[in-house]
Amino acid sequence: MPLRVGIFGSGGIAERAMAEPAASIDGVEVVAVGSRDPERARAFADRFGIAAAGSYADVMANPEVDLIYVALPPAVHAEWATAALRAGTHVLCEKPLSANGADARRIAEAADEAGRAAFVGFHYRLHSFTRRLLEVLASGVLGEIEDIEVDFSIPHFVVKPGNIRLDGDLGGGAVMDVGCYAIDLLRAAWGDAEVVSSMARRYDADPRVDLETDFVLAFDRGGTARVRASFLGDDEGRMHLHVVGSTATLHATSVIVPQWGATLCVTADDDILIDEKADVTESSYAAQLRHLVETLPDGPSPFRAADAVRTMELVDDVYRAAGLHPR
């Protein structure tokens, strides 16, 4: 029997991350979509050949739904994810898992209480490029790590007024949008960390929202990482990881979305040790869905809500250190 998916939300991310990849994967079928506006839900369903459309409550009540993808603003993830879990379905939340650490914990605890699984959609972790990147970082080829820099900057023309990523009520902000990716990647590579410092450039129209935040993490096992999360990138933007080691240097691009042409280069003086490119035909969103099919209900996964709680706690700490309130 296929994994039968219901969707909360009818925006672009619901198309890219679920409706489109599901159509190409054996073992996954989107069977229902819900929206605050039933007409939008019906239009979305008709476009993708989805049988049922209606409200969020309709999706939760549908006996054919095994998992609900919560493709809503972060501020309402906890409300609807916990409702779906209590209704008896598994849950995949679009990243970040929630608006803050406390809400993330609510989702993880609700999953435990309901005997269901809750995941966060850090899809990039399942792409073969990211697996290879983490393998290289763990291999020791770089020697002792001396410097880590992450720059996840979206081009300045992408996030414009009216975008939900600029709405404090909905959990907007650069750290929420791209900084959470950086924290997830750094934790995957080097383990737990604490926030050392943080400085944010605020959005004039909503000072609760950071347009750009620079922060430093210190890892429990030693070493630090400098991170920029930004909506103010240049025309090309940045999705870069740069690591300097005692014996070699690593530079990776397009880390968040490897299928956009990610590259991985490791050099030692004038020697090129590794020079690889991602398979641009491989979809990280499709890989995420295949992973869920293989993992549910209780297989190992880097996406479990219980682990993502710590990522959201660090997001909170980044905001506090910058003089902002957690979402």
UniProtKB/TrEMBL annotation:
<feature type="domain" description="GFO/IDH/MocA-like oxidoreductase">
    <location>
        <begin position="131"/>
        <end position="250"/>
    </location>
</feature>
<protein>
    <submittedName>
        <fullName>Gfo/Idh/MocA family oxidoreductase</fullName>
    </submittedName>
</protein>
<keyword id="KW-0560">Oxidoreductase</keyword>
<dbReference type="Pfam" id="PF22725">
    <property type="entry name" value="GFO_IDH_MocA_C3"/>
</dbReference>
<dbReference type="InterPro" id="IPR036291">
    <property type="entry name" value="NAD(P)-bd_dom_sf"/>
</dbReference>
<dbReference type="Pfam" id="PF01408">
    <property type="entry name" value="GFO_IDH_MocA"/>
</dbReference>
<keyword id="KW-0520">NAD</keyword>
<dbReference type="InterPro" id="IPR050984">
    <property type="entry name" value="Gfo/Idh/MocA_domain"/>
</dbReference>
<feature type="domain" description="Gfo/Idh/MocA-like oxidoreductase N-terminal">
    <location>
        <begin position="3"/>
        <end position="122"/>
    </location>
</feature>
<dbReference type="InterPro" id="IPR055170">
    <property type="entry name" value="GFO_IDH_MocA-like_dom"/>
</dbReference>
<dbReference type="InterPro" id="IPR000683">
    <property type="entry name" value="Gfo/Idh/MocA-like_OxRdtase_N"/>
</dbReference>
<comment type="similarity">
    <text>Belongs to the Gfo/Idh/MocA family.</text>
</comment>
